Amino acid sequence: MHELSIAQSIVDLAEEQARNHQAQCIEELELEIGSLAGIEISALEFALESCVKGTMLENARIVRQDISGEGRCGDCETPFFTDTLLNTCPACGSYMVKITRGKELRIKSIVVK
Ligand SMILES: [Zn+2]
Questions:
Q1: What pTM, to 2 d.p., does this model score?
Q2: What is the set of domains in the chain, with CATH numbers?
Q3: How does pLDDT run across 5-26, given as a tens digit for each residue?
């Protein structure tokens, strides 16, 4: 399961950050997840629940920021919202579309104690 390895690396990264700040535990973890990142949110939440056991994140509040997908047409430069990676430009119908936002998956912030 792809989400399990993602959850594991989120936990590892957060713990590394916390240790760099001599923290004892993590109170809050804020994640940014793009709607085009290919993440199954419910699977990720489920995976995180099991990955945090016995870590500094065990009692942390996990806050999720969902980022909607955005693209821009390479021909007419029209920006638009999208929830799929395969698009044509809504203004001119061009296939020269670039995804500009929504593929991110990152730790936005952590609050340590
Ligand atoms: Zn266009």
A1: 0.85
A2: 2-69+102-112 (3.30.2320.50)
A3: 999 999 999 999 999 999 999 9
Centre of ligand 1 from the C-alpha of residue 97, in Å? 8
- Whole-angstrom distance, CA of residue 81 vs CA of residue 84: 9
Q: What is the DSSP string of 8-48?
A: HHHHHHHHHHHHHTT-S-EEEEEEEEETTS---HHHHHHHH
Q: Which residues surround ligand 1, an ion (CB under 5 A)?
A: 73, 75-76, 78, 89, 91-92, 94
| Average pLDDT rounded to a whole number, residues 34-63 | 96
